[in-house]
């Protein structure tokens, strides 16, 4: 299993709109094809800044080939509206991890 995580830092003034957008639009669009599964949005706790909070958006893909297919075929159409809506009030970075079975 591949875990695909994107951590977003959002400014305080857009937090509620960001969470609503993620739940209503981003997650359904990301999982529509079935290539990404098991969405989980979580608030990241740590050193809190007055400027906002961080959120982790996590999906599972069956394997790296599936994730690469999603990235090549679908990611642009999903991330572009998010970035257009929130512009400079949002930054993020993605991490790809492989689950270790034990």
How are the elements arranged and paired?
Layout: E1 2-11, H1 15-31, E2 37-49, E3 52-61, H2 64-73, H3 75-86, E4 90-98
Antiparallel strand pairs: 1-3, 1-4, 2-3
Helix pairs in contact: 1-3
List the keywords:
Alpha-Beta Plaits; alpha+beta; globular
Structure report:
The chain is of the alpha+beta class. It has one domain (2-98): Alpha-Beta Plaits (2-Layer Sandwich), CATH 3.30.70. It is 38% helix and 41% strand. The protein is built from three helices and four strands, in the order βαββααβ. The chain has a four-stranded antiparallel beta sheet. Helix 1 runs antiparallel to helix 3. The radius of gyration is 14 Å and the shape is globular. The relative contact order is 0.31. The mean pLDDT is 94.
Radius of gyration: 14 Å
Tell me about the largest β-sheet: 4 strands, antiparallel
* CATH fold label: Alpha-Beta Plaits
The number of E-state strands comes to 4
Taking the alpha carbons of the first and last residues, their distance comes to 13 Å
